[in-house]
């Protein structure tokens, strides 16, 4: 009987404040969708870091005859065969180096044409203008500075470049975007909480006679509060369900189908469905607990029961 009364009161409350209930559902759905998206973005950045940091190389670019004329780092002329052999031998002796591969001028020219063949500059370049290089795979990508210190400024070396630095800039941008999404999520969450509190107060005010009678006949505080808390929880749960649907649909149409980024951007290791599915219970739990707690504290002050 009590359960039937609570359920009937939930239905009455949701219908009576239909506009505000709709606003609560939408705001909860948006805030929790952003929350879930931020969690997935954080997982994506971590996955990309693990994937790409394991593949980054340190490159030592060697001076050619054109660099000797135009680059202060190559003022002593193009690299000689003896210098190349010495650089390679020193690299192989270093404990931080896992392996070394060399790229000739012809290979560098071929790779450049493959990547930038449509560039206007590509037609004016010749193989002898390209730089020979050594690509070093480190046992620990964080030890780049060891290579830079050992070979920067050395005769025959034009520059030492670390691909990890380029990736760090990318990951900083992604983290900044993620923090921006979290900021928007926090604002939406505040809006949702304010709407929940106002909705509960309006509902409690519209039924003040019923609650007054219930207090007079000795009903417990929880029995009076239960319908209002349940209303907020149901509205929040609907919003959480919409947020979950949004995440699943968004993952499906942006990565697997529709935009099909998993096939168009093969260089990015996207998070899988397991990462999405593990976030859904958290979103649903938050969608129920957040409105329930907001309604509980609002009612304690408003009803004074």
Automatic annotation (TrEMBL):
<keyword id="KW-1003">Cell membrane</keyword>
<dbReference type="Pfam" id="PF02687">
    <property type="entry name" value="FtsX"/>
</dbReference>
<dbReference type="InterPro" id="IPR047929">
    <property type="entry name" value="FtsX_actino"/>
</dbReference>
<dbReference type="InterPro" id="IPR040690">
    <property type="entry name" value="FtsX_ECD"/>
</dbReference>
<feature type="transmembrane region" description="Helical">
    <location>
        <begin position="280"/>
        <end position="299"/>
    </location>
</feature>
<dbReference type="Pfam" id="PF18075">
    <property type="entry name" value="FtsX_ECD"/>
</dbReference>
<feature type="domain" description="FtsX extracellular">
    <location>
        <begin position="56"/>
        <end position="160"/>
    </location>
</feature>
<dbReference type="InterPro" id="IPR004513">
    <property type="entry name" value="FtsX"/>
</dbReference>
<feature type="transmembrane region" description="Helical">
    <location>
        <begin position="21"/>
        <end position="41"/>
    </location>
</feature>
<keyword id="KW-0472">Membrane</keyword>
<feature type="transmembrane region" description="Helical">
    <location>
        <begin position="180"/>
        <end position="200"/>
    </location>
</feature>
<keyword id="KW-1133">Transmembrane helix</keyword>
<keyword id="KW-0812">Transmembrane</keyword>
<keyword id="KW-0132">Cell division</keyword>
<feature type="transmembrane region" description="Helical">
    <location>
        <begin position="221"/>
        <end position="249"/>
    </location>
</feature>
<protein>
    <recommendedName>
        <fullName>Cell division protein FtsX</fullName>
    </recommendedName>
</protein>
<dbReference type="InterPro" id="IPR003838">
    <property type="entry name" value="ABC3_permease_C"/>
</dbReference>
<comment type="subunit">
    <text>Forms a membrane-associated complex with FtsE.</text>
</comment>
<keyword id="KW-0131">Cell cycle</keyword>
<comment type="function">
    <text>Part of the ABC transporter FtsEX involved in cellular division.</text>
</comment>
<feature type="domain" description="ABC3 transporter permease C-terminal">
    <location>
        <begin position="184"/>
        <end position="304"/>
    </location>
</feature>
<comment type="similarity">
    <text>Belongs to the ABC-4 integral membrane protein family. FtsX subfamily.</text>
</comment>
């Amino acid at each position: 009987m009590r359960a039937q009364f609570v359920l009937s009161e939930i239905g009455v409350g949701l219908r009576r404040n239909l506009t505000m209930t709709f606003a609560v559902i939408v705001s909860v759905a948006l805030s929790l969708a952003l929350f879930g998206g931020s969690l997935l973005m954080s997982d994506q950045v971590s996955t990309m870091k693990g994937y790409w940091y394991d593949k980054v190389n340190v490159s030592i670019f060697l001076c050619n005859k054109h660099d000797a004329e135009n680059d202060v780092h190559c003022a002593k002329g193009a690299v000689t065969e003896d210098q190349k052999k010495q650089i390679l031998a020193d690299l192989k002796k270093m404990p931080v180096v896992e392996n070394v591969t060399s790229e000739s001028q012809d290979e560098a020219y071929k790779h450049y044409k493959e990547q930038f063949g449509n560039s206007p500059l590509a037609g004016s370049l010749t193989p002898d203008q390209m730089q020979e290089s050594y690509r070093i795979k480190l046992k620990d990508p964080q030890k780049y500075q060891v290579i830079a210190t050992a070979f920067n400024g050395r005769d025959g070396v034009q520059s030492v470049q670390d691909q990890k630095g380029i990736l760090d800039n990318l990951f900083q941008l992604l983290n900044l975007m993620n923090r921006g999404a979290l900021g928007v999520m926090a604002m939406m969450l505040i809006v949702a909480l304010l709407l929940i509190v106002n909705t509960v107060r309006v509902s409690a005010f519209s039924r003040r006679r019923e609650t007054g009678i219930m207090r007079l006949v000795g009903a417990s505080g929880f029995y009076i509060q239960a319908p209002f808390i349940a209303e907020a929880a149901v509205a929040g749960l609907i919003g959480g369900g919409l947020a979950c649907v949004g995440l699943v649909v968004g993952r499906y149409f942006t990565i697997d189908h529709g935009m099909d980024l998993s096939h168009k951007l093969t260089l990015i290791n996207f998070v899988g469905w397991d990462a999405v599915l593990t976030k859904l219970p958290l979103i649903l739990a938050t969608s129920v607990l957040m409105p329930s707690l907001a309604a509980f504290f609002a009612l304690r002050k408003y009803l004074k029961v």
